[in-house]
Write a structure and sequence with these properties.
By secondary structure, the chain is mainly alpha-helical. Helices cover 67% and strands 0% of the residues. It contains 1 helix and no strands. 0% of the residues are buried. Keywords: Membrane, Transmembrane, Transmembrane helix. The chain crosses the membrane at residues 20-44.
Length: 48
């Protein structure tokens, strides 16, 4: 007896968008942390 299973769908357009958003967020976190560190360094080193 054979089973009739539908083939698994290839990554749809929504999954591609999800991957792009995830990669963007992963890249944004270190960039944001670096920006915050730069601001702290700037304020700490500001001549008074």
């Amino acid at each position: 007896m054979t089973t009739h299973r539908a083939p698994k769908p290839v990554a749809g357009p929504t999954q591609t968008v999800e991957r792009a958003v995830t990669v963007g967020l992963i890249l944004a976190v270190p960039a944001g942390l670096a920006w915050i560190a730069g601001m702290i360094y700037t304020i700490a080193d500001w001549p008074m």
